[in-house]
Amino acid sequence: MISRDLKLTSSASFRKPDVTKATQQDATATQQVPENYQKASFTKRHLFTLAGTFLLLLGGALTVYLLQPQFEQMNLGRMNTIGGMILLFVSGFLLLFRMGFLAYVGSLFFRYKPVDSVTDEELPACTVIVPAYNEGRQVYDTLVSLTNSLYPEEKLQLIAIDDGSKDDTWEWMKKAKELLGESVDIYQQPTNQGKRHALYRGFNLATGEVFVTVDSDSIVEKDTLRNLVSPFVINKDCGAVAGNVRVLNNQKAIIPRMLNVSFVFSFEFIRSAQSVLGSVLCTPGALAAYRSKAVMNCLSEWINQKFMGQPTDIGEDRAMTNMILKQGYHVLFQRNAYVLTNIPEKFSSLHKMFTRWERSNVRENLMMTKFAFKPFRNGSKLGTRLLLLNQWMHMLTAYPLFFIMIVLLVLHPVLFISSTLLSILIFSSLPAFFYAKKYNIAEAFWAYSYSIFYTFGLFWITPYAMATANRRGWLTRELPVKKQAA
């Protein structure tokens, strides 16, 4: 049930304020968007981390070379047992499957082309919805960046909803309203009900032909909205579009710096390939667009979704994507629709975010399986099913690989660690090369650091998420008790 609107009105009524002027008027200036990802600056800490990364990787490769007799002896020992033979066969099959799937994705990637922006006259009426919870001043920056978009003013509706924040988020939204006037309408939920409910309220208030959702810790470029919305004009079968997510806070902290390289590969390589099949599996919460008709067709099911008898309060983006795919629509990716978003800088917050994502993947892979192998849309469905099969392979092998890793780490620690480091050196070269070719060679080296970090620090996420898939909770964005009291 949507609560009574707590809509704030203002006498200000100008549109598209200049960010520079806003900066001059406000002591806490609007955060500037990093414009040039070609440049790379490194502190001593960054250089030390990268140097340590390559010392580890090269040390692992050297150790594998020096311990060849021990590797041969171990493999011969496996050949003499049934369990060892099964392990070698399964390992070989998984390697071939991964390599084959990667080659398939690569072939799709080279066929991908983003849709060029259509003219102002062709652009549809668009409603942008920004849910916010404990976001502080960042929501102000987000709203300003959206109003500076190169989108026809008369076709753009901007709605921001404070989901019962415990900090000063509402004050920053009111401040944005004072500056932006009729460009934005702001609302406040009486209590924190979750992002899904905030979006639900926004969808019901929206009047556009296309709904766009933007996270309140994100900054969009001026041409992002028009590029994001253009596929709906060109392709009548398009039901949703995923934006191209990059990391905003990647200047100092090491974790965001590593993830920025990972995001480029995940979006610009993987989602480009999925887009060719019309089956992007997840439209990210940071930036996504939906055909309003498609949303309204499944809105009741989406807001009332349950998993194992409990209301679902995570994975709203993946769930919406699934429900739109199920209707027979295509889901595409727009490489030229950039959004810069903040991500956790500390391990404690990062693993919670990854756990939430993986729990959502487990749930929605189960939901997708219910319709993906049925005639859910016209045309070829093989590619979509292969994408889902790859998701299932990731899930089904999580526990066996976790168990094998523990056993090898106990029985053959040196051989296991050295061979793992060599594998990281080899397989991380693909995302590193991809980033280097598109953006910056020096920054590309973070791909190797991230692989080590994930392999040895976050390997437990998928098994844990599968075992706890029924748990609720956003896990991040909660304020410390002292800050809440203040």
TrEMBL record:
GO biological process: extracellular matrix assembly; hyaluronan biosynthetic process
Superkingdom of source: Bacteria
Keyword Membrane attached: yes
Residues in coiled coil: none
Transmembrane segments: 47-67, 82-105, 401-427, 447-467
Entry's localization field: Cell membrane
Pfam family, one: Glycos_transf_2
SUPFAM superfamilies, alphabetized: Nucleotide-diphospho-sugar transferases
Any one GO cellular component localisation term in the record: plasma membrane
Domain Glycosyltransferase 2-like residue range list: 127-295
Keywords per UniProt: Cell membrane, Glycosyltransferase, Membrane, Transferase, Transmembrane, Transmembrane helix
A single MF term (Gene Ontology): hyaluronan synthase activity
Family: Belongs to the NodC/HAS family.
Protein name: N-acetylglucosaminyltransferase
Organism: Salinimicrobium profundisediminis
